[in-house]
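Margin note: ligand = adenosine-5'-diphosphate.
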Amino acid sequence: MISRVFRGVIMGPPGSGKGTISSRIAQSFVVTHLSSGDLLRAQIQEGTIAGVQASQYIEKGELVPDDLVVQLILAELHTSLKNKNWLLDGFPSTVSQAKTLQKNFSLSCVLSLNVPDDVIIERVKNRWVHAGSGRTYHIQFKPPKVPGLDDVTGEPLIQRQDDKPETVETRLRNYKKQSTSVLEFYRERGLLQEFTGRESNEIWPRVQAYLSSLIDKKQDKSVKRLKIT
Ligand SMILES: Nc1nc2c(ncn2[C@@H]2O[C@H](COP(=O)(O)OP(=O)(O)O)[C@@H](O)[C@H]2O)c(=O)[nH]1
Ligand SMILES: Nc1ncnc2c1ncn2[C@@H]1O[C@H](COP(=O)(O)OP(=O)(O)O)[C@@H](O)[C@H]1O
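Resulting structure:
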């Protein structure tokens, strides 16, 4: 059933391909991708109070307090993404966040990526990002056109502080601890669609086929990835 507005969530452990699959969804459908991690990193870059608070948790691989991230996400959904198709990446990460989201919006679906830990740990080692846009690259899987530089701006790529192996281990542990109840919350509501695999290129066609039944492709073009100023 194609509903008027698409409101989706994509879940998965760090490095599972949420950003990769989300950008393909944004290219294939009229959907704007909003990453809670990108929002938080933008706050840190701007040196806001929220950014200073969030950085203390992010650098340890721990979740940022619910009220802080809820405020940032809801502000975007009620303004720049009002009446638009959107896909949330990395939010909700707790049941409390899921309940708050449910009070504000009814979701079309929740996609969950199941990728083995050994694949994730190897992948994140070679993840490079363009801090300003959140675009991600990978030495083998998605290399930049010019080594070390962002394809769009030509600015230097960096590795995230929280992508260090010991922090990734913490984030993986925290994801497993927190996500079980969030996945159950959505499974009980018949919203959860799980995709298991080792490569994004094998998962993507299954995601694309599933979303084709939910998203109306004919709608006017909307912004692909919310530019977080
Ligand atoms: N080798 C390989 N790397 C991938 C694959 N999918 C994504 N990546 C890369 O692995 C890293 C993590 O992917 P990302 O989409 O950022 O995952 P997220 O943390 O869940 O958003 C990035 O550097 C991606 O470019 C894949 O199928 N194979
Ligand atoms: N919904 C959220 N609730 C609390 N903290 C969050 C949330 N989303 C992101 N964060 C914080 O930002 C960090 C980076 O998130 P993210 O960019 O989604 O990582 P990845 O995409 O690699 O899984 C997380 O480790 C966590 O500290």
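The longest helix spans residues 165-188.
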